[in-house]
């Protein structure tokens, strides 16, 4: 099958769920014999773009527009009075020109669109070239903006998020109603999708994890460390970090002064400017090429998200590494982990703190949670099974 795939970003390096959730399924789908032309935007860092191309071109043809995405602030100004921010940021004449050239040169069976951010391009291709289009919803995008508006304490941010939540919902609903198939990443997201667009044809295909790459490491490597993984270029991550730094970590250190907190992810070095993160107990590592070393050192993983949608792929990495996890319910949405069996789910600050400390104080419970999480990763989340599910949906849409 010949597939034209449109992505809202270049999916590299593989240190965040957004990148992994695009790169890994594409790689696995190509391994099944499908021919993929992958179209997206370059990163603002030419070195990173070059590295990404070298990886992607091993299994698909890659086409990039000739300039990166505009700045976030510029897009916010542009969408002050109309337009949904995450969608309009990706509306570029150069992308239409590139797609027109590609579709003139090659014939494709269908178009796979990653995320509502690229939905307008999909509808344009369907209208102009008559190809069936499938939307992969990595998140129900409108829900993220709605939840952020409900949780942020910044009045201006609340207003902006509320406005864009309504605009995104309008555009996203239009896409859901007009794409030939929609693939949700979780049952929760499917519920939101079918509520917004009851007539949409929707399947659920979860994300996966490479269980040969992420494996349990010797217990003697562990230190008295808590680990967060996730870049702050995604606003919900920054909200979660500040939530933990201000309302939870000080309580943990007060009760156990030996515990440290390591923060890994794009842009996280800049948190040193924030007073809440100026502590000798907090290590800001920024983006690192391989997180397995830090995973081995950590005793407890945290995911205190209050805003989000879709599925947190980093939790699958944590599962595969056999690590004990404390997460909010929103942080753990979309996976099959059971509270008390594979991870601990706590939403209010005090119970979250108590759960983290309990895992430090009771190593047997910590190890049992980790072992059960590893079993879940192995039995449920292989990338090959994910790719086979995508192939089945492709065939069903084409048959219709």
Helix/strand layout:
Blueprint: E1 2-6, H1 17-31, E2 35-40, H2 46-56, E3 61-64, H3 72-78, H4 85-88, H5 93-105, E4 110-114, H6 119-129, E5 133-137, H7 141-151, H8 155-178, E6 181-184, H9 187-196, E7 202-204, E8 225-229, H10 235-247, H11 249-255, E9 260-264, E10 282-286, H12 292-297, E11 300-303, H13 313-321, E12 324-327, E13 344-345, H14 349-361, H15 363-380, H16 383-399
Parallel strand pairs: 1-2, 1-4, 2-3, 4-5, 5-6, 6-7, 8-9, 8-11, 9-10, 11-12, 12-13
Helix pairs in contact: 1-16, 7-8, 11-14, 13-15
What is the tally of helical segments? 16
Portion of residues in helices? 40-55%
Order of helices and strands: EHEHEHHHEHEHHEHEEHHEEHEHEEHHH
Structural class: alpha/beta
Strand order of the largest sheet: 3-2-1-4-5-6-7
Mean pLDDT: 94
Topology, number of strands: 13
Notes on the structure:
The protein is α/β, with parallel strands linked by helices and 400 residues long. It has helices spanning 17-31, 46-56, 72-78, 85-88, 93-105, 119-129, 141-151, 155-178, 187-196, 235-247, 249-255, 292-297, 313-321, 349-361, 363-380, 383-399, and strands at 2-6, 35-40, 61-64, 110-114, 133-137, 181-184, 202-204, 225-229, 260-264, 282-286, 300-303, 324-327, 344-345.
Keywords:
400 residues; alpha/beta; 7-stranded parallel beta sheet; 16 helices; 13 strands; 47% helix; 14% strand
